[in-house]
Description:
Blueprint: E1 6-8, H1 13-32, H2 38-56, E2 61-63, E3 67-70, E4 73-76, E5 80-88, E6 91-97, E7 102-107, H3 111-124, E8 129-130, E9 133-134, H4 135-138, H5 164-180
Parallel strand pairs: 5-8
Antiparallel strand pairs: 1-2, 2-3, 3-4, 5-6, 6-7, 8-9
Helix pairs in contact: 1-2
Amino acid sequence: MPAAVSRYEASRSYLWTGVAALAFTSFSAWVALAWPWAWIATALLFFGSILAFALGLLPDIEVHESHLLVNTHRIPWNQIARLDAVATFPLVVRVTFLNNRSMVLVYAGDADARRSLLRNLRRYSREALIDGAPWRTFWNEHPAPAAQPRKVQTPPQRYPLLLAEDEAEVERMFQQLKNAGHLDLEPRKAPEDK
């Protein structure tokens, strides 16, 4: 199996938070025996500890080139029809498949890891609607224009500028210039002896 592009593990700090919340729950329950209003705090701390344990025990998520791996569940990218980000903390993404079944993906890592996971989910789901927009529209990518066949350039048509006799005269003067290095329109006179 090829290596994962990215791996997102559940933050274990939530487990320690759950343990601390349970400790405060027990202290609050002890106080509630003497003061009944403390039962409200006890209930809130208890539900907070359950939530912290639930976030700490979330499955790991791996992003591969060909699929998404959630715990042991392998999801090919081409089977995802729609991705909708529901919340950012914790990251909650509703994933809808081509067969109209859906699942909710929850990840509670740090802010950078949540942004990275959401970006990877959106980037690799090339055939999906991303928050209701087609993938190309969401990423503002336009298809490359089709290659147009190269036109063969033909040399431009030449129109005569001179009469045939004038062209012959120009050609004769050009050859004379080429041979002598200069053009004499009149023959040279011999230098006079002194």
